[in-house]
């Protein structure tokens, strides 16, 4: 009976161990195993990852990859977990930071698991430094948290600029029943933009199409009417361009 050899990982480079990336950009983590048929599991902050549209788990020969399509702040580590054990599993406790009671929210998770009570900060940052306390009317325990360095320092925020049109304001006049296309070229192909009409964000419908084509973002009205005359804005948060649109009736000239 053949003896199964232990599967070993090849040494991982420092660049792979300490990944620095840009918000909105894709990134990959990879490792190499000694047996091409071996299955591996990927974990983030102790939780097993499943392959989905934004995080693909790939296998290429002896190489195993985790491919994140668009980096987000939530991809940063590391978590802070504060634990205390109480004698009565049904007892209620409160968590405090610097004397202020804490409530659960997206960046702060409060858990109860039998006799254990946990406070979890999924992604540590400098502002999490402080004195924490878990307690009730009978007893309390204190924790001192000192976050050394800010994980946000390793993130580069790149502004999304509008390359074309180069002017911040444009005027457009055309006849009714014509196809209208408002187009912007932006500096990053995977960035999002919002379109507004007279200050209100627009939504797609049968006669208004929002198109994404590489670095181009377009607002298309297949068949205009005079009611489509308005101020349209393409906004990246960092930059914007305004189109003043006048739709003239068939008997009028622009």
UniProtKB/TrEMBL annotation:
Gene3D superfamilies reported in the protein's UniProt record: Immunoglobulins
SMART domains: IG, IGc2
GO cellular component, one term: cytoplasm
InterPro entries reported in the protein's UniProt record: Ig-like_dom (IPR007110), Ig-like_dom_sf (IPR036179), Ig-like_fold (IPR013783), Ig_I-set (IPR013098), Ig_sub (IPR003599), Ig_sub2 (IPR003598), Obscurin/Obscurin-like_Reg (IPR052385)
Pfam family, one: I-set
Assigned keywords, A-Z: Cytoplasm, Disulfide bond, Immunoglobulin domain, Phosphoprotein, Repeat
Domain Ig-like stretches: 77-134, 165-244
Subcellular location: Cytoplasm
PANTHER family per UniProt: OBSCURIN LIKE CYTOSKELETAL ADAPTOR 1, SI:DKEY-31G6.6
Protein name as catalogued: Ig-like domain-containing protein
Species annotation: Electrophorus electricus
């Amino acid at each position: 009976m053949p003896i199964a050899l232990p599967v070993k990982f090849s040494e991982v480079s420092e660049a792979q161990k300490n990944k620095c990336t840009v918000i909105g950009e894709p990134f990959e983590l990879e490792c190499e195993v000694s047996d091409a048929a071996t299955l591996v599991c990927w974990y983030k902050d102790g939780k097993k990852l499943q392959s989905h549209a934004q995080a693909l788990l790939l296998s290429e020969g002896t190489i195993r990859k985790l491919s994140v399509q668009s980096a987000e702040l939530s991809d940063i580590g590391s978590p802070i977990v504060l634990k205390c054990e109480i004698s009565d599993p049904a007892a209620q406790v409160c968590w405090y930071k610097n004397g202020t009671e804490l409530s659960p929210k997206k960046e702060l998770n409060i858990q109860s698991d039998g006799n254990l009570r946990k406070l979890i900060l999924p992604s540590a940052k400098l502002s999490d430094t402080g004195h924490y306390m878990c307690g009730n009317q009978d007893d309390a325990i204190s924790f001192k948290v000192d976050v050394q360095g800010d994980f946000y320092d390793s993130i580069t925020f790149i502004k999304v600029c509008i390359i074309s049109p180069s002017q911040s304001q444009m005027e457009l006049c055309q006849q009714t029943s014509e196809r209208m296309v408002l187009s912007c070229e932006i500096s990053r192909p995977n960035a999002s933009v919002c379109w507004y009409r007279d200050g209100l964000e627009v939504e797609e419908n049968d006669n208004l199409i929002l198109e994404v084509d590489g670095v181009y973002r377009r607002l298309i009205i297949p068949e205009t009417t005079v009611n489509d005359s308005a101020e349209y804005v393409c906004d990246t948060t960092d930059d914007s361009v305004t189109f003043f649109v006048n739709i003239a009736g068939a008997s009028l000239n622009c």
